[in-house]
Amino acid sequence: MIRTVCMALMISLLLTSCVKQQILDRVHLFIVASFDEISKDQIELTIAVPDFELGKPEAVTDQMYSKTGRTGSEIREVMGTQIDKPLHPGKLSVVLFGRDKATSGVKKELDVLLRNAIHSRRMYLAVVDGKAKHLLEEKFSRKDEKGMYLYHLLDANTRKGTLPSQNLHEFEYARVGKGLDPYLPLLQIQHGRVSVVGTALFRDDAYVASLNYNQSKFMKMLLKDMNQGIIEVKLDNGTFLTVDNVGSSVKYHMKNDSILINLSMDCKIREAEGNPISDEVLPILKKQIEQKILQAESELIQIFQKNEIDPLGLGDFVRSRKQTWNEEEWMRQYPKMNIEVDVDVIIMETGIKK
């Protein structure tokens, strides 16, 4: 009896796996798609479809398909008339927006992604400095499929790395929420390779400003507690000191009509360019590191206020503590509001060389 049941289960599993294989063989799954603006009412949709060589699963190329139209859904339907298998977006994990498209707004494209339950809310979004289609056309990945390569690149540098990022759900929450604005990684082709070069800052659904790589690292320190990241400090004698962030924490406080941001960081000295590190010198180094971080964070606050954007969600923080908070009044006050940053650094380790 037991033997019969086991045989039945094995046959069932085999049949199930065969059915799944047949389904996968009959559709084109794509992992990455991009949107570019062609004109005021025309967009260009580009997808990279993996093409696996029979018997060689490690050998993969990408077939590029691109069409223009008014809506992404219509374009995909027309695109299907040129492809031998139906397009299936069930594995869509990365969506790129060209600079012009991001500048004019991405609300319509987000609406399509959010309405279809098949799309993961954790998919990565990013802005390309230029045309997104041109980035996908580059041969930047020789081993991995382009979509998976971009997914791992964004994952390594943002969720697991030192740069800020928002997935589809987080971006939409920041876009429609009160007292905060969204942001996305900024990509660029450099010497034939894709690089995460900074952060694209949004007001509502439109890209309005950008941060470079170093500014983005300091921005993430104001967003969440971290335990990674290298900070380079130019000392008064002209040499450079490199410290490793082994644990930083950030807290917001209301101070009358001002906001105080407390940022504390434990660090280890990694490079000192021959500068002697003694107990007498440590207080001086500590002060210079704090000044460097304070200057960088203060410049970020000025950029945010100048562009009337709130990627840190300070308005949301104040709203959670004020019963009479009003969004319009907040946006009038925010550009000129006094926002202070207080930095405290503790040097945990200087290395074995004194």
Written account of the structure:
The longest helix has 25 residues, at 282-306. The strands form 3 sheets. Strands 4-3-2-6-7-8-9-10 form an 8-stranded mixed beta sheet, sandwiched between helices. It has a 4-stranded mixed beta sheet with strand order 11-12-13-14. It is an alpha/beta fold and 354 residues long. Helix 8 (213-223) crosses helix 9. The radius of gyration is 25 Å and the shape is globular. The chain is built from 11 helices and 14 strands.
Keywords, separated by commas or semicolons:
35% helix; 354 residues; four-stranded mixed sheet; 34% strand; alpha/beta; eight-stranded mixed sheet; globular; 11 helices
**How is the largest sheet built, in terms of strand order?**
4-3-2-6-7-8-9-10
What gap, in angstroms, lies between the N and C termini?
75 Å
What number is the mean pLDDT?
88
Q: Largest sheet, if any?
A: 8 strands, mixed
Shape descriptor? globular
Q: How many separate helices?
A: 11
Number of strands: 14
- Summing up helix and strand content along with how strands pair, one would put the structural category as alpha/beta
Order of helices and strands: HEEEEHEEHHEHHHEEEHEEEHHHE
Low-pLDDT stretches: 4-22
Rounded to the nearest angstrom, the radius of gyration is: 25 Å
Roughly what percent helix? 25-40%
β-sheet strand percentage? 25-35%
